[in-house]
């Protein structure tokens, strides 16, 4: 590049790659966002009513929708109308990638099935995301995040069986979207060798089972299904409450020096001489007893005291930060992890993409589009027989 920068910088890694995303809620939009974050030009095709996630919380521009649809453009098309189907076909003919996360059979009914689109554009990478796969006894069943977490076995190794409840964000949805983007990137590399497109398929069930590959490996090796308590016990990980009612996480893992460091931070020679905790194997066997001992001792002092003591003794630790606290964390600020949103219609800040290219980090992201925000310009260009127009200022990424 003439400016001397690494040509593989983050904003341009997928520059020139054109993506049509016909996704709703999270899995499809997350896959599209992952590609957009790397510089792909992603046009989100929505129904005239828009992606239902727009109205999940808020008026047609929910923070949930904003999260997974940044760096994209929007066009609203009625797939039952001949003119809009023609616009859709024009987009597909010029695309490198198509992404959909409909239930099996829906894409075909809309005229967006893989056979038709691959015939229309033989170089197309067609990514199909489903709940359980395109065939089999569960293929027609509806699937959402919690269903995939449960069926895949993932939930069994993260939930307390005595007090079962769902916690946290939609992991299965987002993880499946990331796997879909991973598959698309592999297919693009393959197309570079063969000049031919292909069908990429991923289901939420397959993604979450693969994500839980470690407990599956333990089961195949040991013949016993892992429980949710296994990993924290084996990793010697604890969440402890301090005197000022804050939570603190520590992770001792397999290195003896971390146990020594913890004993030093606690100034607790009696723990070092306790036969129940003398070796890593003993600490694993007596995990609950050690947890109770640590709870009692950590409750004596404030979070600030323990942050200083654990840091001084080189113990892996972190306060359990709330989301607002993360935005002010010194390391987060150093990494520039929170960036402005260009053209914001809602939230003015966001979390930038996690990866760096050539030492370069993204300094901003583009706002998720309002419904059909870019439709007129795209329609006009296609009506003139042109390729779809570039985003203002180049690719959205």
Topology:
Elements: E1 18-22, H1 27-37, E2 41-46, H2 63-68, E3 72-76, H3 82-93, E4 97-100, H4 106-109, H5 114-120, E5 125-130, H6 145-151, H7 171-194, E6 198-203, H8 204-211, H9 213-222, H10 230-235, E7 237-241, E8 247-251, H11 256-266, H12 269-272, H13 280-285, H14 287-298, H15 303-312, E9 317-319, H16 323-326, H17 330-335, E10 338-342, E11 349-351, E12 365-366, H18 375-383
Helix pairs in contact: 1-7, 7-8, 11-15
Radius of gyration, rounded?
A: 25 Å
Q: What is the strand tally?
A: 12
- Derived from helix and strand composition plus strand pairing, the structural class reads alpha/beta
Specify the helix fraction band: 25-40%
Low-confidence stretches: 1-9, 393-397
The domain tally reads 2
What sequence of helices (H) and strands (E) makes up the elements?
A: EHEHEHEHHEHHEHHHEEHHHHHEHHEEEH
Q: First CA to last CA: what distance?
A: 18 Å
């Amino acid at each position: 590049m003439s400016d001397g920068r690494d040509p593989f910088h983050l904003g341009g890694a997928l520059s020139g790659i054109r993506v049509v995303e016909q996704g709703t809620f999270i899995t499809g939009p997350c896959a599209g966002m992952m590609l957009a974050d790397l510089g792909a030009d992603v046009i989100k095709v929505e129904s005239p009513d828009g992606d239902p996630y727009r109205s999940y919380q808020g008026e047609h521009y929910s923070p949930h929708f904003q999260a997974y649809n940044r760096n994209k453009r929007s066009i609203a098309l009625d797939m039952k109308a001949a003119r809009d189907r023609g616009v859709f076909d024009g987009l597909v003919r010029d695309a490198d990638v198509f992404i959909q996360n409909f239930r099996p059979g829906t894409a075909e009914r809309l005229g967006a099935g893989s056979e038709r689109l691959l015939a229309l554009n033989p170089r197309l990478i067609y990514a199909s995301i489903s709940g359980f796969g395109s065939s089999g006894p569960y293929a027609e069943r509806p699937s959402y995040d919690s269903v995939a977490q449960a069926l895949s076995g993932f939930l069994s190794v993260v939930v307390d069986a005595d007090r079962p409840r769902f916690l946290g964000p939609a992991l299965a949805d987002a993880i499946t979207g990331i796997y879909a983007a991973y598959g698309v990137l592999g297919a693009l590399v393959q197309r570079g060798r063969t000049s031919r497109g292909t069908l990429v398929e991923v289901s939420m069930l397959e993604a979450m089972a693969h994500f839980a590959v470690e407990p599956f490996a333990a089961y195949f090796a040991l013949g016993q299904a892992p429980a949710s308590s296994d990993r924290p016990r084996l990793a010697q990980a604890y969440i402890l409450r301090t005197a000022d009612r804050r939570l603190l996480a520590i992770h001792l893992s397999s290195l003896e020096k971390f146990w020594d460091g913890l004993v030093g931070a606690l100034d607790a020679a009696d723990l070092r001489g306790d036969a129940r905790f003398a070796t890593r194997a003993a600490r694993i066997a007596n995990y609950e007893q050690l947890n109770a001992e640590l709870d009692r001792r950590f409750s004596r002092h404030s979070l600030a005291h323990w942050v200083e003591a654990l840091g001084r003794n080189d113990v892996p630790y972190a306060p359990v930060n709330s989301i607002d606290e993360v935005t002010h964390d010194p390391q987060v600020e150093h990494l520039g992890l929170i960036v402005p949103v260009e053209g914001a219609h809602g939230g003015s800040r966001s979390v930038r993409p996690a990866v760096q290219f050539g030492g370069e980090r993204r300094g901003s992201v583009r706002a998720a589009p309002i419904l059909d925000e870019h439709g007129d310009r795209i329609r006009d260009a296609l009506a003139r027989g042109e390729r779809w127009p570039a985003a203002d200022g180049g690719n959205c990424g």
